[in-house]
Amino acid sequence: MTLRTLLVDDEPLALDRLQIFFQDMADVEIVGVARDGTEAAEAIGRLKPDLAILDIQMPEQNGLRVASSLPPELRPEIIFVTAFEQYAPDAFEVEAADYLLKPVRFDRLWQAVERAKRRKILRGIADRIAAQDAAARPEHDDGIWVSTRSGAVFVPVESIDWIEAQRDYVMLHTATRSHIIRMSMRALEEKLDSNQLLRVHRSAFARPSQVVEVQRMGKTINALVLRDGAVVQVGPNYSKTVAERLGLPA
Predict the structure, then answer these.
(1) What is the largest CA-CA distance in the chain?
(2) H and E: helices and strands count for the chain
(3) Whole-prediction pTM
């Protein structure tokens, strides 16, 4: 891989030395030069380099402040270059790849650049794995863990016929038993697939396939009767959605 690199130093001789060193490094492209902290911050935002070689003591902003002001997701790999040892702990607080003392030696700069290259490769691998995991993760939960006195029981979503809220708790009703869990209806709605369990009231969900009767008040659906005889109230704001889901006139 080629590291697009920004050089930042307020000393012309130091910049010249870095540019000469980088001419002898493969897989590195110098995309810009900055001479103070303000220029550095602007160049990083505009050029989006893979690597920034940052002096610490500079006019406008020092290199540490520039690095710490960048959002972590936009921060390039950073190698600090300075004549002062005391800034090293602060440099690694912003996850710098390395910290070099002036005058910079070619071998140390090469090692630092190789380290930055490895870190970028590993970061890219980690990002791809995270993206793959996110893509593979189901959009909705396939079940809910319910705490019991002896541990916990897993209740598959496909086994739940309807749900009702009771203050800070919800009751999950299945064909064989009911389970109580402390959870908000909003949090539950994020977990559930509306194709399986439809929100029909601010305090209730129902499985459309279990509905055997619809009760109306005027033109508005106000209750659903399920196969097990349970009557689930339908809120006025949910009536139209319920009718559409069941294929009925609103």
Answers:
(1) 86
(2) 7, 15
(3) 0.57
pLDDT tens-digit series, residues 59-71: 888 999 999 998 8
DSSP sequence for 111-165: HHHHHHHHHHHHHHHHHHHHHHHHHHS-SS-SEEEEEETTEEEEEEGGGEEEEEE
Task: Starting at the earlier edge strand, list the strands of the sheet with 178-182.
Answer: 178-182, 169-174, 160-166, 204-206, 198-201
Pick from 184, 154, 153: which is nearest to 167 by CA?
184
DSSP code for 168: T
Amino acid letter, residue 192 = L
- Write the DSSP assignment of 12-42 as a string of letters: HHHHHHHHHHHHT-TTEEEEEEESSHHHHHH
Residue ranges for the chain with pLDDT beneath 70? 133-139, 250
Picking from 207, 211, 204, 197, the residue whose alpha carbon sits closest to that of residue 170 is: 204
pLDDT for the residue numbered 126: 84
> What local confidence, expressed as pLDDT, does residue 134 receive?
61
